[in-house]
Amino acid sequence: MKKAILQYLASALAVILILGLVVFDRRRNQYLVKRVKDPEISYIYQASLENLDRLALSQAGVIQSYQIDPMSVHKEDGKIRLALHINHSYDKQVNLVLKSDAYGDLSVVQATPSDALKLALTDEAYQKRLAVISQKADAIIARDHWDQAIKPAYVAQVRSKMKKTSLDHFDNTLNDIDQESKEVGSDTYAAFFQASQLPNHDKLNLVMNHMQVYVDKYQFLQLGKSGYKFSKQLEPTSPFYSYFREAIMETYQTDQGLGVDELGIKLHLFRSWIDKQSMDYIRTNYKGKTDLDKLLAYSKDKKINLDYTTGASFHNRTLGDFTYPHNMKIQLPQTSIMGPYGVSNARFIEFIVNMDTGKFVSEWNVYKKKKDGSIDSNPKHYKIEDGADIADTDSANYGLSKGLNADLPAYLNNSHTYLDVHHPADNAIRRKMVKKWKNPRNVLNGGNYADIVKKGGLKDLETWRHVKAEDRLQVYNAYLDHIRSTFVLDGFDSFYQETYKFQGQGRSQANGNP
Predict the structure, then answer these.
(1) What is the DSSP-derived secondary structure letter of residue 350?
(2) pLDDT averaged per 10 residues, the chain (length 514)
(3) Beta carbons of 248 and 266 less than 8 angstroms apart
(4) What are phi and psi of 451, to 5 degrees?
(5) pTM assigned to the model
(6) Where are the transmembrane segments (predicted)?
(7) Paired residues of 79 in beta bridges
(8) For the chain, how far is it from start to end, CA to CA, in angstroms?
(9) Which of 138, 129, 207, 142 is nearest to 173 (CA)?
(10) Do the beta carbons of residue 397 and residue 348 sit within 8 Å?
């Protein structure tokens, strides 16, 4: 009897142990399945599939979709093994081996397609499609003098665009890419610029050649009549500008800046065309009563912060004595939106805005176009008294300006100075204007200039607009005295609230709307 009881207990313990192992194994497998299905690592599957099929996960590829088979997920020899079913098929699949690195991040170390998938990848129609793509890429390389390194970027563009359309539109897609390749700053053009392994100096020179730029006898940079133009979709925060800036910063690293060669001179003058493109984009694509309203609409739409903290003394020039600022500076984006591994695009584009009218202050408001489409660059055709917008114009920043921001790496502290402040000569029209239109000296350097709009941003602007015209000079001089005594550059609103609000004057000086 006792022996039978012991045998029973032993059998029960064995069953419990087996059930425990089954439950443990099932839970471990559930954990593995959950881990390999994490959406954040989907890129490792996509990369593996693209290695097998360069057009994977698009309507032009053989591999158009994949699903992880949960029953196939298991651990073996310290690695995770699983199968991907392709296009909802059990015949077409890819067997993957995944490995964790020292940080626990997974990567694919082996990808083996099934025989059925291998056969589909050698299909004649598919191979012909790849051949056409290769020929199209080679034609662009020959025409535009890119290097072979852009071919993967070309394929990536095909793959990306074919995700949004059917195979019936394959030829149209290739035609669209060809057209975009001739539009500077388009997604395709930016992808080529980034992918190219040409020296940065050569890449920058290519852009100039593509647009057929030339410096005329008045040192004005003209665009060629048959050259490529900016893409209409090139917006102020486009990745292209970031890659372009990076190439400039890596090419021109000395205190001599852009003045060391002919290309540098062209690049300096080219920033005016960047300004025009940015201004035209905002004015064309966004609604608002004023240019500022349209810029704010863009900022809201793109969810980017604007920076108001860099000095605008060079954009508040006067023919006579300086009284107080009329213009403010806005740079964007305030901080880089390229991500931690991308070149900074912080404060690359700037807009100068008249604080009362909300209109962009730009040389392009004044320049005249000739019948042949070129710009009339003869300074004799422009009057000094009409030159305020030319003297105060905005300017794209190849270096990184600081303002009140703390995101500037030490090695880039002087980049704005040697790339933007100290630059080659401007065109003859602007040189004519700045000889007469003089910028005021900063208050902290013994002058009488201080930015109205600073740390307070739009609050500064709103408060200033409420100050009556007849009171502005007196209030501004008090603002200067405040800065001289405190050395604080918070902006006008902070000063105004502290100085006037509690004296009963506050908004009694207000007139008009902000």
Answers:
(1) E
(2) 61 54 56 92 95 96 95 92 94 95 92 96 96 98 98 97 95 97 98 97 98 98 96 96 94 91 97 97 98 98 96 96 97 80 81 98 97 96 97 93 80 82 93 97 95 96 96 96 92 92 49 40
(3) no
(4) -65, 130
(5) 0.88
(6) 6-24
(7) 76
(8) 98
(9) 129
(10) yes
